[in-house]
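Attaching the record inline, Q. Sequence:
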Amino acid sequence: MKLIDLHVHSTASDGSFTPAEVTALAREAGLTAIALTDHDTVSGVGEALAAAGDFPLEVVPGVELSCLYKEKEIHILGLYIDHTDKAFLDFLDQAEIKRNSRNQLMLAAFQKDGFPITMEDLVMENPDTVVTRAHFARALVKKGCVSSVDQAFKKYLDPDRPYYRKREIITPAEAIQAIRNAGGFPVLAHPCLYRLGWMQTEELVRNLKELGLGGMECWHSSNYAEESSKLCRMADRYSLLPTGGSDFHGAAKPDIRIGSGRGNLQVPAEYLDALKLAMFLGQ
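Structure, as predicted:
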């Protein structure tokens, strides 16, 4: 069975491998397609496409946009984005401004309490990276403030922890419309991670479908098999296409491997074929 991974990250946001290295890892894993879906940026897409070259691996230009839904942060994947579209790039620039403002507030709070981290520690010699909470977590580990990235989130960075700061964030409607305008296909990322419960998850899916959502990430490294099955049935009820991805980040999530997640993830290439057909038919 041919396998794909439609949710991977690189150093363009909070992954630890460059886009070219991610592409090489995908080839080594025997995948036939990956989607590079860095947070709020498409800056790594060109490198990934060039690295794929003539190899039998398709690189899907993608993005992962953070949105606010009823005071809960959710993520929308955009697949087959025109990564050169000026209007979309301008949209991402505005999202980056909002993200950077939040990062400065978080950094100031840490420094006020004596944590020895700087902006240089966060960007880690990659000034073009989109800084996320994962960068704070890795800096805290490197400085010896915590023993692991997971501990950094649980102790300091999760939404109910002392150094978390909300940021001005786009709405799901804005995200879905921006993706559609750039020729992309919008997909709800990892629905179970929002811990909404099944009734509220279905309400979320129903609302996003009305806004133009096209698919739902039914298979993800964090899912149990039963959860993925329920999500597939929900996607079918709302005429949404199922997709799947590992959410590979490299060192930031060392137990997740590209293509196979924590060992048992298998996303069939037929999912991508169905998505392409839907886009061709204008769905």
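Residues 93-157 form a domain with the DNA polymerase; domain 1 fold (CATH 1.10.150). The longest strand covers residues 58-69.

More tomorrow.
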